[in-house]
Amino acid sequence: MTLGSIMTGHVVSVGMDDSLHKVKELFDQRGFHHLIVLEGGRLAGIISDRDLLRNLSPFIGSMGERKQDAATLERRAHQVMTRGVVTAPASMSIEDGGRLMLRRRISALLIVDERGVCTGIVTWRDLLRWALGREPAAEESRAA
């Protein structure tokens, strides 16, 4: 079996200059854990929900929120994204994709076509579902 058979094909993206406010809204609305970052339509990076949390003030939305806490939402995607994204073709075996993720210590592998266009994403959850031999339930499916 290949990564293409377990990947999520609908990947949500943001632009390099989109604010963390927009990134946070997408994570909150969609309930997934990774966004790709595009620059001029090309893959430039990836942002995880953990990247977002590391770069936001923990006081946002609390009684103790200050102006400088809210200002962290104005940072830009390119300031917090991971560059040098690890990618793989959809034709790669699931086993090789899993090994690559373990070796590179990543939680998501972006699937790209021969032109370098991101066509999907495989996360550790996808690998676990495959290993357990079950299809993702409708309520478990996510956009990325």
State the main characteristics.
single chain; alpha/beta; CBS-domain; 3-stranded mixed β-sheet; 32% helix; 20% strand; elongated
Could you give the order of strands across the largest sheet?
Answer: 1-2-3
Q: What is the CATH superfamily?
A: CBS-domain
List low-pLDDT spans.
137-143
Number of helices: 6
CATH topology: CBS-domain
What is the number of beta strands?
A: 6
The percentage helix is 25-40%
CATH class bucket = Alpha Beta
Order of helices and strands: EHEEHHHEHEEH
* Envelope shape: elongated
Strand percentage = 15-25%
Work out the radius of gyration: 16 Å
Structural class: alpha/beta
Tell me the major beta sheet: 3 strands, mixed
Q: Roughly how many Å apart are the termini?
A: 20 Å
- Total separate domains: 1
The overall pLDDT, averaged over residues, is 89
Q: What would CATH call the architecture?
A: Roll
Q: Describe it for me?
A:
It is a single chain. With 144 residues, the protein is an alpha/beta fold. The chain has one domain (3-131): CBS-domain, CATH 3.10.580.10. It has six helices and six strands, in the order βαββαααβαββα. The chain has helices at 20-30, 49-55, 67-71, 77-80, 94-104, 124-131, and strands at 13-15, 34-39, 42-48, 87-88, 108-112, 118-123. β5 (108-112) and β6 form a beta hairpin. The longest helix is centred in the first third of the chain and has 11 residues, at 20-30. It is elongated and about 50 Å long. The protein starts with 12 loop residues before the first strand and ends in a 13-residue tail after the last helix.
